[in-house]
């Protein structure tokens, strides 16, 4: 047993109010541990604490009681015998009368009452005694927030765990609860209070029971909180207004006994001027209707119906000015949350009391008189705004009511549909225009049709096709489709309002997608529908809305027939829509512009798997025909078509196939097909006339390979290697290879990428695309040979080879992580080949030969061969290799960075130290050309930026977290030091350029942490990038970084010290003529500058205002708007100065 003296020390430490919170917590933990580990018993603890629990010193007694309660709270799972529990609960029950020690008493009661049954629980008798003491002694609203919360928690616990015992207290319980809750304002306490009232009323369900006399008081208590007006400070983020509102709603609906008071209150609050009160009233009505039941709610039906109608009508906003091809509810009036909740309530009450509400709706004067509006106005534009509002409200009510149940659908269609069809027939018969359709009648017909269709689709049970509503629809469906088709043909030739067009197409779509069992449409009507819509696609492409609506309708119809497997409709859709759209790809007789044709192709294909397979077949045929015509015959128009076809395939088809199970073979077929065609193309004199075509083909190949599984990728890469090795002169026999793929005997280094033959460039580019896109573990045939191939061809300026080399480096496994090793070849071996091979031999005349001085990739970057383009190609290749290393987190990237930095410095030490016999004399007095150094500076942009063509997650690159931050933290200190130590203005400008690349591509949070050190470098970078129009994108990206700094508090501190320089820079960029976004962003930055401390910016106000006066005449509207805003901001700076 532990020494009592030790226990006493812990008790005294906790009881002593002068001790810190940390010390008190440690003492509590120590005492808990002693009891939990049976070093002392609860009895021993109580005996030791007797003085602290009974002393007349209020503070010590309160602390002692709280200590015992806290220990018990930590021991809820420790078994205690009944005698001990009885003794303890009796003590805490008595202490409820001791307001000085009340908190400890509450915590102690809660700790004992919430114990698990297997650890020993409080008896029913003792629990009732707790409740009696609670109700007798506690005045809850006189306590502090924390104690009130404990009181509510204790009461909630008693109601939930000991309901029979507290119920026996009869009237005393509801009286005490009403008294405890009345006036409560704390959100946490209110949530508990509402839950307590819910539990209370469920405890006494008998209308004549103990609760009867307190219903009025309970309602008054709850009523005072409705609607919830939440003004509590923002730190209480764990209790939201919605939490309170829902708790109150549940309390309102907890007993039908409150219905006579609650429903009139909710209906009254619907007239409130507060939108939130209306929304809450409608939500509460929906919830309470379900809880109170149909019988109790019947007497409120008229008032509820009137309120629903009013809520929808008064909450509408002006309809949207333009209709898009997206779906639209009603007539396009914007419905707020009030209207939405009103429609939810309508659906609930109609479903609950069908006959009553249907009678109210059908007898309603506003509903019945809507036919006056319909017959008075033929088209949408003729209907006045008030009439449109009424038509919209009626349409939404008809839709919701009809969709609710079969009974509702039958009644609504029996009442309205025949009459609406008669109006449609009469309008078509009496109109001077052929096939004129009455808009109002068509709109309401469409709402009823949509409701019937959605009822079938959304039902959890089978609905008979013999229901009256479907019989009514069947009698008119074919004639309605044919009339709409004729009308659309006329619509295409006339100017019709967008809303008229929308509902004509939408109605046709709904009829065509109605479940066949319930509304069988004749084959001729269905095909008439498809023919009409496809005709719009081919002929009426100049009517944008009509064209998009028709295409969307065809997509939905295609999706419908695909899912329903209705063979007759499937065949019709395939022959009229799919096959025609496929044939158009190879037929130039269609007048539809090619981009729109491809949009239609992708939309129709996405409507179903079988449709997509047919589309893919046609697309592939058109792609290969166009590419062949371009590569073999040099047809420029075919090249342009092929580019668009490939973009469609890459952006629309491949993502769809990737998301659809079971279509991987399609991707394999496409990739293998490309290589099959490559074999036939290279037998001719292939010419790559259009670089964009090669780029599009490579991207399609990459996305195809990247979307495949590893097994499929293996098959593709084997096919690609077969074509590469057997049909080009790029690879030599492996026996002739030493350490570089090709010993460039006598090859002039001035030869460039365009020195490749057309077939070699094509095969090499496509093979590199495959390598870029494969997963890390995919086996590459003859991997060393491929590495050397890419290493050699990148020196000739083939950038895709460099990207492929970087991708290979990125995906190889390492010795330290053998689980990642692919087919036994490791990253270290690849690095050895790339960086340590010395197989090129240089002569003074710029020719590479097999003797003289051996050099490697690093030497070429550093200028050991006097050939400018070769150096640039080497640097680009090294940068892509470095990017691959950077992304996977390999240490070798530091060597790449040092080589690039060495290129930036004049007469660098690395080159001097590496000069060899025969080379040193040639380079000792020479420096790298300016273009080479600029290339080295721009390599940092390549390292830091995100690439869309390789080394990204789409193409399975290994990307370690925070790689940009790591490069930023490594490189920026070196660049800053180099800038300070540089004596050459040109070298300094290149260092600034490299730094600007690092800053613009680094995460903003990394830049902000070093903002004070970097602001001057950033400004220099902006100046450098503004000199060359080709750098406009880089300029804009760097300017965005400055914008981010200006909007951050820490960043503003860095700007304040350089305010004059920053403003000078920004006022200059306001007139940058090569990019509007630069001008706009510069002005936005100046607006942010106006918020800086007055003393810092006031001296520059005149300079800024003068510049802004010129910017307000900018040719671009966005810039002019920002200039006006900036002028106001800086005018206020001047006025603040006058006031000062």
TrEMBL record:
Pfam families: MMS19_C (PF12460), MMS19_N (PF14500). Residues 688-1089 form the MMS19 C-terminal domain. One of its GO terms (cellular component) is nucleus. One of its GO terms (biological process) is protein maturation. Its main location: nucleus. It comes from the Eukaryota. It is found in: Nucleus. Keywords: DNA damage, DNA repair, Nucleus, Repeat. InterPro entries: ARM-like, ARM-type_fold, MMS19, MMS19_C, MMS19_N. Residues 46-312 form the MMS19 N-terminal domain. Key component of the cytosolic iron-sulfur protein assembly (CIA) complex, a multiprotein complex that mediates the incorporation of iron-sulfur cluster into apoproteins specifically involved in DNA metabolism and genomic integrity. In the CIA complex, MMS19 acts as an adapter between early-acting CIA components and a subset of cellular target iron-sulfur proteins. Belongs to the MET18/MMS19 family. This is MMS19 nucleotide excision repair protein. It comes from Trema orientale.
